[in-house]
Specification:
alpha+beta; Beta-Lactamase; 17 helices; binds adenosine-5'-triphosphate; binds magnesium ion
Length: 590
Amino acid sequence: MGFPKIGFAKRLLVLYGIIFILVLLVTDWTLSHFLQKRDLQQLQSSLSRQSTLIREIATPLLKEAPKLQSKVKKLAEGTDLRITIIDPEGAILADSSETSEALAKMDNHATRPEVASALRKETGMSIRYSMTVQTKMLYIAIPILEHSQILGVVRTAMPITRVDEILASVRRPVMLAAVLGILIVLVAGILFGGRLTQRIGRITSVAERYAREDWSEKILMDGRDELKMLADTMNQMATSLRSRIEDLESEKGKISVILSNMNEGVIAISRRKQFVMANPAAEKIFGFTAAHTQEKSLIEITRHPQLERIVDHAFQEQKNASSEIQISGKIKKTLLANVIVLDAHARDIGGILVFHDMTELRRLENIRKEFVANVSHELRTPLTSIKGFIETLLGGALKDPPTSERFLKIVSEETDRLGRLVEDILTLGEIEQGAALVRKEKIDLASELPAILERFKTQLQEKKIAVENRISGKPLPLSGDRDKVHQVFVNLIDNAIKFNKPEGMIVLSADQSPKGVVITIEDTGIGIPEESLGRIFERFFRVDKARSKELGGTGLGLAIVKHIMEAHGGHATCQSTPGQGSRFSVFFPA
Ligand SMILES: Nc1ncnc2c1ncn2[C@@H]1O[C@H](COP(=O)(O)OP(=O)(O)OP(=O)(O)O)[C@@H](O)[C@H]1O
Ligand SMILES: [Mg+2]
């Protein structure tokens, strides 16, 4: 901002100077006018008095011209006074400033204004430039009367230059006073003005800080005048402004924290569908950055005509709307778009769009649907087969004991399968309820494993599979739900036997670290093709459906393992080389 070119103090100084000079001029004029008037009055009365005296002296000498002339000369000697005696016809009888010889050459004075007045028996007065003495003169003429008969006129004159002289002598000290006065004004102006400028400057510089919202300084002002009051008021104003701004900012901060941490995308638009603001979630959904959205319309930033139509409709009807939309792009998404129409009072914002990501919900819904379809299918297959065999038996096969026995055996196997299937589905459902249902206790896996392996004794013997259990000798503690941990190893060992080659191997080992325990079950079986590796933990997934079924599998074993491990805060992984074997690892966090 800076100060104006001509500062406050300088302006004040110039103003004072002008006022001072004006006052001086007016004073000089009135003074000289007054002095002139007073001096003239004094001169006039003194001349009148002198004229009367001279009249007394001159009257007896009127008839003796030479005597009169010398008397007059004597009277005026050594003064500025000029005395002239004139006869009733206007001829000069005597004149103090002329010699007696020159008198005769002088012109008739009857027409001089003051003489003319005196001849009319009045006191005459005139101010005139005299050619004789070559100065401005005041003339006074009085008549010499005897029995109201005019014997002559006494005229006295004095130069009035004296007034000017007096004036000049008065003006000198006045001028001196003026110069002194101007000097005082200057010094006072500089001192006072400087202080004023400095105080105003202090206010200005702090006010400039306030304008930049820098509240670090207060205006410190001494004195008890208006500037002090102004400074105090400004300080108070700054304090309340500061707290107001802080309140607003903290309010704004809260809202922005809420908005930026929301999972839902939020976009505010104007009544004319111009972009106003968006939260980071909305930016992520539509792939724009708020910095590049100034003065853009909704369609420009979202590029979603369907959304535009929903908003148009909501604005037209003045009613909130909600509809599901699809976002294509790198990741396809399903969003529930809610359009909230604001009333006319919220001037800048005409509507708020809120987007809920429904992708995961829809995905889970699909999984569930698929699961139900799979379960139905899995249940129907053994049921159909059971029903088929029973019908065959009822249709006459019962009479053939060897056939009926074979059929009934199959029916029994299928019933077992159904039972297992139902049990597995129940287990999965139970685990899916979440980690809350997992009771954690200290288990020593090293002492639990032999009992688990014991259950597979017959199967192992049948397939002549050898087990190398490296988790023995020293305890292997971990924290988990005993039954569920058992289930994990039963399922994994079952697979390692089922999908092993005859006379194969199974190796159980463990690796302990501060993070937790990793237990590995390795087999020398058929292995899993790479393209299936990513799917084996899915429900009902089997690499070879027919073969797995033949082996009595439901395809839920690994899904149960995965869910149990996740409920424990751990995970299950698999590596495999087709034809050589597989290696399953489960991790229990410490
Ligand atoms: N050790 C393994 N070696 C080779 N393939 C395996 C192994 N373990 C699992 N698989 C493959 O992964 C599929 C899924 O295994 P999962 O345990 O979930 O089902 P299942 O064993 O077929 O049936 P269930 O365990 O319910 O009796 C199996 O059908 C099989 O194709
Ligand atoms: Mg299995």
